Amino acid sequence: MNEVAVHFAASQVDAEVAASALRAEHLRPRVARDDAMLGVAGGLSVGRFVVLVPEDEATRARAVLHESAGEEPHDNPVVRLIVIVALMTGLLLATPFVARDCFGAS
What we know:
Blueprint: E1 3-9, H1 12-24, E2 30-33, H2 38-41, E3 49-54, H3 58-65, H4 77-103
Antiparallel strand pairs: 1-3, 2-3
């Protein structure tokens, strides 16, 4: 069964709300992470999510969500890279302070 993306959301909560609206109309949505930062984000519900439906339900699902059949939102890889580098830098800078507190060194 082929699935089609009908909604892109900035958070898991937004995606689940859209999926709930589709389930209320007896459609079969599936929420999936659409983000390369899966390993970095861990268990947090951050990043971009997509709502997928079976191909034969796409037109009806878009009507329920008032979505157009246009392309997915543009993802800026430069901003993504800056965020990843900033997170890694912050973690590296915090390491000496955490190690000092954990091991009691002064």
